[in-house]
Design goal:
binds adenosine-5'-monophosphate-propyl ester, eight-stranded mixed beta sheet, GMP Synthetase, Chain A, domain 3, Rossmann fold
Length: 634
């Protein structure tokens, strides 16, 4: 396996200060740091201590000298048939206007700004404006509904929320404002102001006088604003992004400033091979970590144009992504396996219809990339398909093929090798010893975590330590909560989560969150949600619910009616993103004698596998109920 890569990786582990000290030169520092790494309080790693920088400066201002008129942001919506490109100069002007509008509303360094927006250019301006003035952004995915949004408002306590009247999905207007209003009314810490972009999609949008303000009105007041970048110490927080875990309450992943900028700049060079002047196209959403790292910050820091795409891969037809690649001469593309599986059902001629000569690589991440899908797209495009494995917590790849260092032969199904800075180990779940070749272990990282990884859980250092560093017995190592194996050639393979997190079409969801949403339906006494393998989406949530009144589900009609109602409850609480594919009704759930729901056994039955060791089960008939429900007998 690649000698050059091995040397590069080895150095990053044995001499992290030397290695990252060199990488730090990829970004602009207003004041140099005094120490590369302070690891005096494990597992908290402080990178580039004392250095001062600004993410917006590195993403925008820094490029004004060499490439002011080059495209920086290209907004494309096939939902509203809109296309607009902003040069670095124009992006700079818009970000300044937005920063001035935030300052005018009293937003200062350290204040939180919650961004609940569709994939529109204003979302990018808002994110960068926060970075410019040192406000901490908390972007909430537009697919989340009121209850989830309220949880995030209460945890981050934003001074300001920026939103829009609506998004659009598959030609259907999705109103944001009613969900936001409901969330604010549920919240214990309502924001003082809400700024709304009015796209004219939802003509019925209501406004609360004194609180709700119009983006465009404020913008026009600040047309010539020049807001200086606020220089931040490298370890100050830049953003919070909530992600699901084992509990019902999502964790606020907090990231820093300097380490974040250096890590993304380094990844653009060593992994993604994106160069200034080229165009980067990530099909993700700004509500997810891929959107943060590789729609907004990474490409812009590298001086690339970045594409923000509101639309699906198949509208108006299955060639739309490739049409965009041709038109904007995309050199690096980033998507998720689900998108490719969707395209696989389309006419393969679309892959040949457009001039894709500028495209160097297609990176795929977020969920397991199955071999047939990898092979299909690899042959169809004739370009390297690079699987990369990482998490919201890490912000950039843990495993990948470091194309900028060395192009190591790829194996379909494997996301490759540990990236520089990550000291990856596969540990036995109970002995905590390293497992051997081809043996399954928990993917763990020996701290300190490299720059760019989460610095802590927002407002809860203890939760950070407990959740991530104390789950592998006897060792203070970071657990990814993924199973993995390494083959004899050193290639890693990811086998799925060790916890109750599921992955639906590349979207990470906690089964506990869905269970909590379902439990709020008054008809439901108890529920278990599991992830079941799905050909297209990777996994889908399936619920097994015990009802309070069995008469309600005595008939098929009754069951169908209640199933619909439960799904609606999830839509309202969590958003359609968490809606179970099926809700089955049973009278008891399979549990251990100590009362733990046997989720893995239910999952195995749903996937047609053996339910495993059942010696601890309280009542075996509960499993039969699961089987009967699946067979449509219940
Ligand atoms: O289970 C792993 C899976 O997605 C989880 C992280 O999801 P999220 O926090 O949304 O971050 C996505 C960043 C790309 C991981 O714990 N996962 C992510 N990438 C892969 C993957 N599973 C298999 N192969 C991958 N390439």
């Amino acid at each position: 396996m690649g000698a050059k890569y091995q040397q590069f990786h080895q150095r990053s582990i044995s001499d992290p200060e030397g290695f990252w000290g060199e990488q730090s030169g990829l970004i602009h520092w207003n004041k140099p740091f005094s120490r590369v790494l302070d690891y005096s309080r494990p597992p908290f790693a402080k990178w580039f201590v004392g250095g001062e920088t600004n993410l917006c400066y590195n993403a925008v201002d820094r490029h004004l000298k060499d490439r002011p008129d080059q495209n920086a942001l290209i907004f494309i919506s096939t939902e509203t048939d809109t296309e607009k490109a902003y040069s670095f100069r124009e992006l700079h002007a818009e970000v300044n206007r937005c920063a001035a509008m935030m300052q005018g509303l009293g937003v200062c360094k350290g204040d939180r700004v919650l961004i609940y927006m569709p994939m529109i250019a204003e979302a990018c301006f808002a994110i960068l404006a926060c970075a410019r003035i040192g406000a901490i952004h908390s972007v909430v995915f537009g697919g989340f509904a009121s209850h989830s949004l309220a949880n995030r408002i209460d945890d981050a306590k934003p001074k300001l929320i920026i939103s829009a009247d609506a998004g659009s999905r598959v030609g259907k207007v999705v109103s944001y404002k009613p969900l936001l209003d409901e969330a604010i009314s549920l919240s214990k810490f309502p924001p003082k102001h809400v700024v709304l972009v009015n796209r004219g999609l939802d003509k019925t949008m209501e406004r609360t006088a004194g609180r709700d303000l119009d983006w465009e009105e404020l913008r026009t007041k600040h047309m010539n604003a020049q807001v200086p970048c606020v220089w931040l110490e490298s370890n100050e927080p830049s953003y919070i992004l909530y992600t699901s875990g084992t509990t019902g309450l999502p964790k606020g992943v907090q990231r820093d400033v300097g380490g974040h900028a250096v890590a993304l700049a380094a990844s653009m060079k060593h992994i993604y091979c994106g160069n200034a002047g080229e165009t980067y196209f990530s099909t993700s959403d700004i509500g997810w970590v891929v959107g943060h790292s590789y729609i907004i910050y990474g490409p812009l820091i590298a001086g690339m144009a970045t594409i923000m795409y509101e639309g699906t891969p198949v509208r108006p037809d299955g060639g739309i992504l490739w049409k965009i690649v041709e038109k904007y001469k995309v050199s690096v593309m980033f998507s998720a396996p689900t998108a490719i599986r969707v395209l696989k059902k389309q006419d393969p001629a679309f892959l040949k219809k457009y001039d894709l000569s500028t495209l160097k690589f297609l990176f795929l991440a977020g969920e397991p990339l199955d071999q047939p899908t990898a092979q299909w797209i690899s042959e169809g495009l004739g370009r390297p398909i690079i699987d990369n494995y990482w998490q919201t917590e890490t912000g950039w790849p843990i495993l990948a093929n470091p194309m900028g260092v060395e192009d190591i032969p790829r194996k379909f199904g494997s996301p490759g090798f540990p990236m520089y800075g990550y000291n990856v180990k596969l540990l036995h779940e109970s002995t905590s010893e390293e497992v051997g070749t081809d043996e399954k272990g928990v993917v763990a990282i020996v701290p300190p975590l490299p720059p760019g990884c989460m610095s802590t859980v927002w407002g809860n250092d203890e939760r950070f330590v407990k959740t991530y560093f104390e789950t592998i017995p006897g060792k203070m190592v970071y657990s990814t909560f993924d199973w993995g194996i390494r083959d004899k050639d050193g290639y890693y393979f990811i086998l799925g989560r060790t916890d109750d997190v599921i992955n639906v079409a590349g979207h990470r969801l906690g089964t506990r969150e869905i269970e909590e949403a379902i439990s709020s339906n008054p008809a439901v006494a108890e529920v278990a949600v599991i992830g079941v393998a799905d050909q297209l989406k990777g996994q889908v949530p399936v619920a097994f619910a015990v009802v309070k009144d069995p008469a309600q589900i005595a008939s098929r009609e009754g069951r169908m009616k209640l199933e619909g109602e439960v799904m609606k409850t999830v839509d309202l609480q969590l958003g359609a993103i968490g809606r179970p594919a099926r809700v089955h009704f049973v009278t008891i759930l399979p549990k251990t004698r100590s009362g733990k729901v046997l989720r893995r056994s239910i999952q195995a039955i749903c996937e047609g596998r053996d339910p495993g060791d059942l010696t601890t089960i309280e009542d075996v008939s509960a499993l039969q109920q699961v089987r009967d429900a699946l067979a449509g007998k219940a």
